[in-house]
């Protein structure tokens, strides 16, 4: 029972981060499950089954708060779901770790670009023009869905920075659309795992514990997305992209533990500092706007 309660807390934290920044449910959950000895395929399966419930609640919450672009959802959901089914079906014969360093480098670059794009504005408010094209959305969804099934997390880490970097969508719309479309991805991945592993290969107790925690966190996360200004939300998301992918690359290089602690500590402090700076810039922009309107 104690372990299930802990997993419920993990699900709550993972969904709170995922629902507010558009990523990290799978990464957070899979990291914890693998740490306690759950096999990669079984961990990814449990995560996908729990996401069927959490993404429904998250999607409804984002929709009610106006955080969803339904055109984007309609474009990315189907190819993402199909790719997740394919990835889950062949999970036992594919090694997702082989692709992680290459994907991490690409996402790290996107994270740096997202930070640069929003931090360079200084006192100005960010502007969003145009809409993301299908030439961007369909390949992005296919790659993200495949990686999501193979690695236990990839839909948000790939989709969110890609859409943020495009500069065509408000960050809250990016997060809401990615979270809402993830329902189809979770269904596709879950069906693939049932096909490949059978019901006996899935621990539904783990899935249920993650689900309960995630469902409780989903409405709160959607509310945070609605309330946070675009600059702060984008800087928080961009920093998370850099931190998580830096950790992935460090894991690949396998340096000494003190080196990992120092590097990650510096990155976390820098991330906190950038968020603080973004908050100050947002307050400055609000004051300037108020003075103009007086």
UniProtKB/TrEMBL annotation:
Record bears the keyword Transmembrane: yes
Localisation per UniProt entry: Cell membrane; Membrane
Residue stretches spanning the membrane: 29-49, 70-92, 98-116, 204-225, 232-250, 256-279
A GO CC annotation given for this chain: plasma membrane
Membrane topology: Multi-pass membrane protein
Pfam family, one: TauE
Record has Cell inner membrane as a keyword: no
Keyword list, A-Z: Cell membrane, Membrane, Transmembrane, Transmembrane helix
PANTHER family: MEMBRANE TRANSPORTER PROTEIN MJ0441-RELATED, MEMBRANE TRANSPORTER PROTEIN YTNM-RELATED
Similarity annotation: Belongs to the 4-toluene sulfonate uptake permease (TSUP) (TC 2.A.102) family.
Protein name, per record: Probable membrane transporter protein
